[in-house]
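User: Could you check the structure of this?
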Amino acid sequence: MELAYIPSPSHGVLHLGPIPLRGYAFCIIIGVFVAVWLGNKRWIARGGRTGTVADIAVWAVPFGLVGGRLYHVITDYELYFSEGRDWVDAFKIWQGGLGIWGAIALGGLGAWIGCRRRGIPLPAWADALAPGIAFAQAIGRWGNWFNQELYGRATDLPWALHITSSTDGRVPGYYHPTFLYESLWCVGVGFLVIWADRRFKLGHGRAFALYVAAYCVGRGWIEYMRVDDAHHILGLRLNDWTALVVFLLAVLYFVLSARLRPGREEIVEPHADEDASSEGDETVSGEDKAAADDKAENKNDDKGEDEGAAVAGTEGDSVDLGKPAVAGSGKSAESPESAGSASEPASEPASETETHAESGTESVSRDEAGSAKKS
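Assistant: Sure, the predicted structure tokens are below.
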């Protein structure tokens, strides 16, 4: 008995009343969300619009699911069309069976349709999505763990996978967890693409080509360890040959693209910069308007304070006849008519003039005013 091993789930599906919740489907759905989320962040960083990756994924994901299922059914047709099998099972995608080669191929066709509708280059979109696809594969491989499938040779390693199911020709025992190996490999591929893209500014589909080539290297040795039924050509499993051919095509594309179209695309989505600048202008205009409103409000407040001060000064600008007037007034202590009239008594005060005298004028006594009248 193994002292350390990876246990397999007793059931790959939970029932919420009449609704089945399948682990395989959940892994696929979570992987898609991760790919779209990361792809959207990378697309925006390249100068694209928010939501473009998701809009194109609406085309790519269904095409990819159909393509992955078609590849699996075609390459393992005996599971569905041989004697004693039910061909209807070919449509039961939730039971497992998606070929990544068909998913990428037909998913690429769906992405191409979506890109043409949006007027953007497919290679740039694929570069943005490449590491997210690798992470999505890493998550999706855990669906094979729920279904107890795609394991490797028997082993006594501490991380051996304990298979307990005996359906479809399975033999309970301890095997290499090839689903885990591929999951970890895909995580490494995702981080490799992110690093290389930042370091070398990959463009025109080269980040996607790097993802494909790196994945194929890992898939080659992992596929060689698997023991599930598969077609063999010259002693190698069909998927090994597929990985080899796709690897060579990815490397060829990478080299030719670097020579013919070096560098990275400057514009990945038309009019995205214009939209961003217009939004910025609207924001600035709004800020300027708010600043102008604040300035006008402050000006009105200052004006109100000045008017209040003027009213207060006028109301308090009375002159006490028993006290001398204050120097610096803008008006003279008496009018020219009163100064020129010799018939008025010298002792009569110029009450009207003194009443309107302002604070700050020089002090003038009644005697001096009388002398001025006499003179």
